[in-house]
Amino acid sequence: MTAPTPFGTRLAAAVADRGPLCAGIDPHAGLLTAWGLGDDLAGLERFALTATEALAPVCSVLKPQSAFFERFGSAGVAVLERVIATAREGGALVLLDVKRGDIGSTSQAYADAYLDPASPLAADAATVSPYLGFGSLSPFVETAQRHGAGLFVLALTSNPEGPEVQHARIAGAASVAGRMLDHLRALNADAAPHGSFGAVVGATIAEPAAEDGVDLDFGGPILAPGFGAQGGTVDDLRRIFGAAAARVLPSSSREILAAGPDPVALRDAAVRTTDALAGLA
Ligand SMILES: O=c1ccn([C@@H]2O[C@H](COP(=O)(O)O)[C@@H](O)[C@H]2O)c(=O)[nH]1
Fold first, then answer.
1. Separation of CA 31 and ligand 1 centre (Å)
2. Burial group, residue 180, by CB count within 10 angstroms (0-12, 13-18, 19+)
3. What does the pLDDT profile of the chain (281 residues) look like in tens digits?
4. Most exposed among 13, 114, 195, 198, judged by the fewest C-beta atoms under 10 Å?
5. Active site annotated at which positions (predicted)?
6. With a 6 A CB cut-off, is 97 part of the ligand 1 pocket?
7. Is any atom of ligand 1 closer than 6 Å to the C-beta of 200?
8. 12 touches 194 (CB < 8 A)
């Protein structure tokens, strides 16, 4: 059996072809209302599939936010399965934003659910939380390696509460976030053009400081949520990421989705955002 093409390689090709924008599929109750839909299963289905069909052909990555689907129970998760399939049919890679992390044996079950192609929820990559210790993510790492999938590990998140944990100092004087990037650097070693093990670093943070042991040169992609509705701008991306900007996927959900429900307007919003990102790297 031939080895699957690693996520990092597939992502680099998609970004070269379509640009770095990661469009979020976040069916907020407020957006359903703004689109003239009910905050119910039918509204979820119409919203999520309209957005996915419109955006998948023009974005390198779509990022469905699992929470907004889980809100409707198993029927909502079935819509998420259709979103994943539809996004792939449209040519986008799918990054499932689930931020999972647990003890190793449970992490294995999550990894099987989100990264094994045999699962109806399988995506190209998933977000994971390392705050039960980076080693607890080993089942995710091994499952991703086996199936050519990717991971995005929470490092410096876009929310204002993150620094309490992520800037804390640990042995060796690095910050917790810096240590997470060190683990990712080891996983990505020797991968070209970059590895499959990414970090989440918000587009809203203060500059990562070298004295905190935060070195963005860890050889993997960087998901940068907070771009758009949370206030992050293209200038912020340049300020925060500098030489690492070529590996950044700016992620925007509400700002693009607010252009709907017209599929042409949604697509135009994504294309405009991609154009604005053209000079980033
Ligand atoms: O640090 C993080 C990690 C993930 N997110 C997620 O990204 C989107 C952001 O949505 P916007 O509408 O563009 O603000 C959402 O799904 C978050 O859960 C994040 O914001 N910050």
1. 15
2. buried
3. 788 999 999 999 999 999 999 999 999 999 999 999 999 999 999 999 999 999 999 999 999 999 999 999 999 999 999 999 999 999 999 999 999 999 999 999 999 999 999 999 999 999 999 999 999 999 999 999 999 999 999 999 999 999 999 999 987 768 999 999 999 999 999 898 899 999 999 999 987 766 677 899 999 999 999 999 999 999 999 999 999 999 999 999 999 999 999 999 999 999 999 999 998 87
4. 13
5. 99 (proton donor)
6. yes
7. yes
8. yes
172 CA distance to ligand 1 centroid (A)?
A: 31
d(CA 113, CA 40): 25
Q: Is 24 in the pocket of ligand 1 (CB under 6 A)?
A: yes
Is residue 162 a contact partner of residue 156, using CB atoms and an 8 Å limit? yes
Q: Is 226 in the pocket of ligand 1 (CB under 6 A)?
A: yes
Taking a C-beta distance cutoff of 8 angstroms, is the pair 226, 235 a contact? no
Residue 63 is a catalytic residue: no
Catalytic residue (choose from 99, 167, 183, 247): 99
Q: With residue 176 as reference, give the H or E element that holds it.
A: helix 176-188
Q: Is 72:37 a contact under the CB 8 Å cutoff? A: no
